[in-house]
Design a protein that fits this description.
The protein has no helices and 10 strands. With 193 residues, the protein is an all-beta fold.
Length: 193
């Protein structure tokens, strides 16, 4: 209840085809977050990204957008903040049945605890997928999440290691089985986390 909130977001994206396989891309957004029971957490977030998207072939796709993000608080309890922002996606599919992808991004994220105001989150992840036949496929991913958590009087760092593996088996047209494994590891800069 204490983190109950409402969010309004406006977003504009625009891609301009520049050449046969290249797009000039923009992504602009404004978000207004209002907390029902804690108005001192109320904030406005704005982001602007500019970059390039390449669809080099059906085998290789690459997007790079970089820019700026800002968070402004309605109350003076928290200082306004700004940061670089990026979103990078690369997908390589050398065979119709196999693909590899890499994703990296930075974003201001909402509070996930009762006493913090926001988080600056860097995410990097690799994913491998393989479809062996019409019935059996596997997917594995590994990544790191590095975040700075901002509190009223301090900040802390948290680093996560994430590893996932999934097997899927299609028994018939109505039944599919999944077997998955997840590993999570957290390293925090504060002793009490």
């Amino acid at each position: 209840k204490i983190l109950d909130q409402k969010s309004n977001t406006a977003r504009l994206t625009f891609d301009y085809l520049y050449g046969t396989t290249t797009y000039i891309a923009t992504d602009l957004s404004l978000e207004q977050v209002r907390f029902k029971h804690q108005p001192f957490y109320d904030k406005d977030k704005s982001t602007a990204l500019l970059g390039v998207k390449w669809a080099l072939s059906s085998i290789n796709q690459f997007d790079v957008l970089v820019g700026y993000q800002k968070v402004s608080f309605q109350e003076s309890l928290f200082a306004d903040d700004s940061s670089a922002k990026w979103r990078i996606n690369w997908r390589w599919q050398p065979l119709p049945s196999a693909s590899f992808s890499f994703n990296s991004s930075r974003d201001f994220a909402e509070a996930n605890r009762l006493v913090n105001s926001y988080r600056l989150v860097d995410t990097h992840q690799f994913t491998l997928s393989k479809q062996f036949n019409d019935r059996f496929s596997v997917e594995a991913s590994a990544g790191v999440v590095q975040q700075e958590v901002f509190f009223e009087q301090q900040q802390t760092s948290e680093d996560y290691l994430n590893v996932d593996a999934k097997l899927a088996y299609q028994l018939n047209s109505r039944t599919r089985f999944y077997l998955g494994y997840q590993y999570r590891d957290l390293s925090a800069s504060q002793e009490y986390l």
